[in-house]
Amino acid sequence: MKIIRNNDGMVLVLAALLIVVLSVIGFAANRNVVTDTVVGSNHLSSVQSFYVAEAGLELGQAECMQRFITYDWANFTPILDGTSTTSLTGLIFDTPRTLYGGTYTVTISNDAADAGGPSTDTNRTISFVSTGTFDTSLTTLKSSIHMNTIPKLPGAVNLVNDANVGISGNAFKIDGRDFKITDPDDAPSGTAAHRLGIALCGTPQTPQDVKDRIPHYENIKGLNTGIGTSIGVSSELTAAMLNEFADNVRAGAHYTNVLQYGTQSTPKITYISNQTMTINPQLSVVGAGILVIDGANHDLIISGDFNWVGTVLIVGGKFRVNGGGSAKIIGSLIVGGGADSPLELDINGNARIEYSREGMDKVNQALMNSKGRYKVIAWQRVTS
Questions:
Q1: Are 167 and 138 contained in the same domain?
Q2: Do 255 and 337 belong to one domain?
Q3: Domain that holds residue 305
Q4: What is the DSSP string of 304-326?
Q5: In principle, which of 21, 59, 104, 357 could form an S-S bond with 192, CB 3.0–4.6 Å?
Q6: What is the model's pTM?
Q7: pLDDT tens string 227-284
Q8: How many domains does the chain fold into?
């Protein structure tokens, strides 16, 4: 038998093998590309469904917050029991809404820990479920928010704990009637219920004690208390409420330890911590919203001009208007007491402190535009 010893035909075999190997590699690469594309597409859809659900959650929170503030609610019962149905943001609960190719649906319920049951809110807390879909992906998010409230203020001036009073001269007016911001002295045109001129909230003093220390007590007007001046005791504002309010304001402050202030068109929260704020004779301060002086024995001392629309809160120091100084507050003043000084409310200069529902609206507006209006107490991603 003749043995063929040349290599004719090997090139063809090797070429065939190379084609097979390259085909396998190409098929595997193509399969990986397809798989990666599918995985990437699914991941993108999942991310987009998350963002859609999150948008629904944020809008649901905003809707409830705005109704709470706009209608001056004490709790969320009107929205839970179906009494309040008019949307302020365009969101209709339990109704799907489209967003950039996706869809979300938001439902609400009472806080599970609330003893009031499904329709009666007793702790100012409400829960949300937002379900977002995009293509084939679905994400469900849950959250609960707790509304921080402005405590009901019983007076134009509110003295809490052991805050003491010393007012001399005749160049002051304290009035618990409802003033519009532009109303002149002694001519209120607001329609809100009268408050006390000076409300004693948890102080050991009696209204007669305070009256006896104010020579011209007739300059204090408002809700009639039967002692010839508008000074009375109230349990509507407590030290605990004051501290909670101060904490909420601190969390939502627009300016901290800087002397910047809001305006009537854009009220802000200015929070001064552990510092005394002194307004010298050559200075003038004009602001709107909430001004807080926080810290033991840290005061607001006015020797220049001070004009504020909204609330001024002195947590642990004193409010003093020196002779030659001028202070005008249209809204409310809260003095927390506890200062080493014997007088936490010390007025020797020109002062006009008048309750104003319109001024308090600036407080609401400042809080609504801050992080301190509500707090998220629970957040959970349920499905994705």
A1: no
A2: yes
A3: 155-368
A4: SEEEEEEEEEESSS-EEE-TT-E
A5: 357
A6: 0.74
A7: 889 999 999 998 888 888 888 888 889 999 988 999 999 999 999 999 999 999 989 9
A8: 2
